[in-house]
Target: Xanthine dehydrogenase accessory factor
Amino acid sequence: MDPFVLKTLNAERRARRAAILVTDLGDGRDRVVREGDAVAGALGEAIAKAFRSGSSGLVEAEGLTFFLNVHVPRPRLVVIGAVHISQALAPMAKIAGYDMEIIDPRTAFATDDRFPDVALHAEWPEDVLKRQPLDGYTALAAVTHDPKIDDFAVKAALDAGCFYVGALGSRKTHAKRVERLLALGAGAEAIERIHAPIGLNIGAASPAEIAVAVLAEVIQALRSRGSGRDAKGEAA
Model:
C-alpha cells in the first residue's frame, strides 16, 4: 500500500471517521474514500451501501473489479440517565455491538451495583462530554426526564452531528424541550432530528420494552445513513 494512502486511512480511523480503502484489482491502485465524498456511478452506489452496512467485499462497476475495505468506527451509545430503561438497555446494546456509556450526576442512581460492566460516569454531562466529545458515530439517548441533566447533552448531540438523538417524554414534554433548546441556540432544523417520544412506536410499556424500542430505533438510524432517508427512517 502507498504510504500516503496508509497515513490518510489511519488518520481517519483515529478521528473516528468512516473511510473505505478502494482497490482496483486490475492495476492494484488504491485510494481512500471518506464518508460523504462524491463518487459517481455504480461504484459510488456500492460505496454508499458499504458505508451503511459496514461490510467489506468485492464489487463490479464500469467493467472493473474493486475490493472495498471498509473501516467504520464502532458505534457508541451514550445514555443520559441511570434509570430502569438504561439497566435493560445496557446488555442489549452490548450484544448488538455498541460501546455504551451512562452519564448521570445523581450518585444514588449511578452505582456500580445497578450497572455492572458498564462505563458509568456519576458526573454532569457537561463535564464528561468535554473530555469525551460526541461524534457522528455516536447515538445519544436522554432518559432522565430532568431538563437540568438532559438539555445540555441533547444540544451537544445535535451540534456534534450524532447519527441518533432521542429523548424520553410525551409530545407535550417535548414541546417544552424544544422551547428550551431554541433558547440555547439550537436551530429548528436540527431540533427536528430529535426522536421524541423516544423509540420505535411498538406500544412499549415496561422499561425493558422501551429499551427494545430505543435500540431498534438507534439501529434503524445507523443503517439508514446516506440512504436518502432521514434519521427517523422517513423519505427525505
Q: What stands out?
A: The chain has a mean pLDDT of 93. Helices lie at 3-14, 41-53, 84-95, 125-131, 147-160, 171-183, 188-191, 207-223. Residues 3-71 form one domain. DSSP finds eight helices and nine strands in the chain.
